[in-house]
Design goal:
Helix content: 25-40%
Number of helices: 13
CATH class of the domain at 3-113 and 203-220: Alpha Beta
Number of strands: 12
Radius of gyration: 19 Å
CATH topology of the domain at 3-113 and 203-220: Peroxisomal Thiolase, Chain A, domain 1
Largest sheet: 10 strands, mixed
Order of helices and strands: EHEHHEHEHHHHEEEHEHHEHEHEE
CATH superfamily of the domain at 3-113 and 203-220: Thiolase/Chalcone synthase
Strand order of the largest sheet: 3-2-4-7-1-8-12-11-9-10
Structural class: alpha/beta
Distance between the termini: 12 Å
Strand content: 15-25%
């Protein structure tokens, strides 16, 4: 691929951004990304937005938010699946040869709209909505299925939670929440057995923007130095039905990584230094690790992943930003020394129905 990350910005993570309107959050993050890249908005030839009307708490939210996102009088398009799917769309626009310098913006002020109410309304209306299915219940089904398939005990899940919070505590871009004890995790109530409350990554407010350019643009601007090159990309949507095969198979998840690795010209996971996983629960992380059989040389979610910050809709794109920062040597206290290649994963929908994977390397 001939697509490059020129600059990026993450909005400071918060459980509730009370001192800014959503428009201000979006503007501040987009402006910070442009500043990081040394680009003015006038130079952009397009903008890609990744956002959710329901989670934004307003219908057709891009009517109000496209301008703060940098898209005033610019060619603009929006995707509503997830932040990392937004990166897929942005990359396709650049790879088409039609566009050369763009801004990708995604956000989620999770405190704006009741998260589980939104998820419940996404259920099939004649059956699953009536029984009250929501994200937590779907993740409970997932936890049970992968526990059986991969031999995950409650002790395994609790240890994964604690380890995630320990990594997250070093990440200055995250919430830096207190690291819970195993006893606290074990004592937390069930939300959907076997899933306990503290085994879930708490949702937060946040946003991320990236300035992305083509190789042709870089040739015309040789003084510009990109942070990383996007070398591999893959995405897939699974069956809606929450059957055991779909929940425990992780078929699409595993195939996506293989496709993205192949696109990058790599042989296997041993050539990846870092993988940032969208582990919305501890069961996700343990199942993902065991399904991929990652070697010890590959560091998993050094940022802390969603346990550092979890603006749900754009958490996958936050993972991508963390992966790029690793490549650029700008990850701070969570920097993995000598990182040359890093992968980012994002999921969306009930119990990881949709997945996307992006691989970055030094430019």
């Amino acid at each position: 691929m001939d697509t490059y990350i020129l600059g990026l910005a993450l909005h400071p993570a918060s459980a509730w951004v009370a001192d800014k309107r959503l428009e201000e959050m979006v503007f501040d993050t987009a402006k910070a990304a442009l500043d990081d890249a040394g680009i003015t908005r006038d130079e952009l030839d397009h903008v890609t937005i990744a956002a959710c009307d329901e989670l934004d708490g307003r219908s057709i939210s891009s009517m109000l938010l496209s301008a703060p996102a940098g898209a005033y009088l610019k060619d603009e398009i929006k995707v509503t699946d997830s932040g990392l799917i937004g990166l897929c769309l942005e990359a396709m626009r650049v790879e088409s040869g039609r566009f050369h310098l763009g801004l990708l913006s995604s956000w989620n002020k999770s405190s704006k709209a009741p998260f589980e109410d939104v998820m419940r309304m996404r259920c099939e209306p004649f059956y699953t909505r009536d029984i009250g299915l929501n994200a937590s219940i779907a993740d409970g089904f997932f936890a049970r299925a992968v526990s059986d398939a991969y031999g995950i005990s409650e002790s395994d899940a609790n240890s994964a939670v604690r380890a995630s919070y320990e990594r997250a505590s070093d990440n200055e871009r995250g919430m830096r929440a207190a690291v819970p004890s195993l006893q606290e995790i074990e004592a937390s109530p069930y939300v959907a057995a076997p899933l306990r409350k503290m085994q879930q990554a708490p949702v937060t407010d946040g946003g991320v923007s990236m300035v992305i350019c083509s190789g042709a643009w870089l040739k015309k601007h040789p003084h510009r130095r990109p942070l990383a090159r996007l070398s591999g990309l893959a995405w897939r949507v699974e069956n809606y039905q929450l059957g055991e095969k779909r929940l425990s198979g992780l078929t699409g998840f595993k195939e996506l990584f293989q496709k993205a690795i192949a696109m990058s010209g790599l042989q296997d996971f041993s050539q990846l230094d870092v993988v940032e996983l969208d582990n919305q629960t501890a069961f996700h992380e343990v199942a993902y690790r065991r399904a991929l059989r990652l070697p010890e040389t590959c560091k998993v979610s050094p940022s802390g992943g969603p346990f550092a910050q979890n603006p749900y809709f754009c958490t996958g794109l936050v993972n991508a930003a963390e992966a790029v920062l690793q490549i650029a040597g700008r990850a701070g206290a969570v920097q993995v020394k000598g990182t040359k290649r890093a992968a980012a994963h994002g999921c969306h929908g009930f119990a990881q129905q949709g997945n996307a994977v992006a691989i970055f390397e030094g430019a």
